[in-house]
C-alpha cells in the first residue's frame, strides 16, 4: 500500500518544527548537564582526597614501624644501653669479638668494642616545627656518617622523652610521626615500644616497666 505524500505547506512547516529544540529546552538540558558534570567532579575530587589521605597514613605508619623495628633489632644485640639527659639520644655498646676479653674482666662476651647511636634531631615539644624534626642512626659514633630513619615529622609524645633507659636493661622508645600536608588533613601515628638487650650483664638481668 502506498502512503499518501503530505506535500502541503502546513505539513512541511509542522515537520520542520517537530525536528528542532526551542531555546528554553536547550538551556534546561545544558543546566542539567552542568549539574551532572559538577557532581561528578566533586565526587572525583573527594575520592582523590580520600585516597591521598589513606596513602599518606600508610606511608607515615610504614616509616614509624620500620624505624622502631630497626631500633629494637639493634638493641637486642647490644651489650650496654644508655641515654643522654635530654632523652634525645640512645647509645648502644657492642662486643665485636665475643671470644676476646677486651676489658679484661674475665668475661669475653660483654665488651664495648664500638658504639652506635640513635638520635632525635629537632626541637623538643614543638608541633609547629615537627616537619623539620628527624630521627637518625649512627653506625659508629666515632664517625660522622649517619643514616636517616625518618627524614621529617618526628615529635615528642606529650610528657615523655623519646628515649628512656631503666636499670640499664630496658629501653623505652616513644615518639610520634606526623605528615603535615594540609590536603591529607594531617595524618599521624604514635609509637610506644620497649627494647631489651639479649646480652645484658647479670647485674642488670631484670626488666623494669615504667607506667
Radius of gyration: 34 Å
Number of domains: 1
Structural class: alpha+beta
Mean pLDDT: 78
Mass-distribution shape: rod-shaped
Strand order of the largest sheet: 1-2-3-4-5
The rounded distance between the terminal residues' Cα atoms is: 100 Å
What is the number of E strands? 9
**Count of individual helical segments:** 2
Order of helices and strands: HHEEEEEEEEE
Are there runs of 5+ residues with pLDDT below 50, and where?
207-211
Helix content: 25-40%
> What's the main sheet like?
5 strands, antiparallel
How large is the share of residues in beta strands? Answer: 15-25%
Brief sketch in words of this structure:
With 211 residues, this protein is an alpha+beta fold.
Can you give a write-up of this model?
The chain has 211 residues and is α+β, with helices and mostly antiparallel strands. The chain has one domain. 30% of the residues lie in helices and 25% in strands. It has two helices and nine strands; from the N terminus they run H-H-E-E-E-E-E-E-E-E-E. It has helices at residues 9-18, 23-76, and strands spanning 80-83, 89-94, 114-121, 134-138, 147-150, 154-155, 163-166, 170-179, 187-195. The strands form two sheets. The protein has a five-stranded antiparallel beta sheet with strand order 1-2-3-4-5, covered by helices on one side. Strands 6, 7, 8 and 9 form a four-stranded antiparallel beta sheet that branches. The longest helix has 54 residues, at 23-76.
Question: Which descriptors would you attach to this protein?
Answer:
211 residues; 5-stranded antiparallel sheet; 9 strands; rod-shaped; 2 helices; alpha+beta
Amino acid at each position: 500500500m502506498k502512503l499518501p505524500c503530505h506535500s502541503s505547506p502546513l505539513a512541511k512547516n509542522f515537520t520542520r518544527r517537530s525536528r528542532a529544540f526551542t531555546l528554553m529546552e536547550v538551556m534546561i538540558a545544558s543546566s542539567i548537564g552542568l549539574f551532572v558534570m559538577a557532581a561528578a567532579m566533586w565526587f572525583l575530587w573527594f575520592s582523590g582526597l580520600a585516597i591521598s589521605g589513606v596513602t599518606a597514613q600508610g606511608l607515615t605508619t610504614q616509616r614509624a614501624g620500620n624505624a622502631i623495628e630497626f631500633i629494637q633489632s639493634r638493641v637486642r644485640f647490644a651489650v650496654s644501653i644508655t641515654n643522654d639527659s635530654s632523652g634525645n639520644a640512645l647509645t648502644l655498646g657492642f662486643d665485636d669479638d665475643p671470644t676476646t676479653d677486651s676489658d679484661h674482666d674475665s668475661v669475653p662476651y660483654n665488651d664495648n668494642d664500638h658504639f652506635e647511636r640513635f638520635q632525635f634531631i629537632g626541637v623538643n615539644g614543638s608541633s609547629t616545627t615537627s616537619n623539620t624534626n628527624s630521627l637518625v642512626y649512627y653506625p659508629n659514633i666515632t664517625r660522622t656518617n649517619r643514616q636517616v630513619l625518618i627524614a621529617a615529622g618526628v615529635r615528642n609524645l606529650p610528657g615523655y622523652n623519646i628515649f628512656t633507659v631503666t636499670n640499664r636493661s630496658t629501653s623505652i622508645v616513644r615518639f610520634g610521626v606526623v605528615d603535615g600536608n594540609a590536603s591529607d588533613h594531617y595524618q599521624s601515628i604514635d609509637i610506644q615500644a620497649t627494647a631489651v638487650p639479649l646480652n645484658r650483664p647479670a647485674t642488670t638481668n631484670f626488666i623494669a616497666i615504667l607506667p
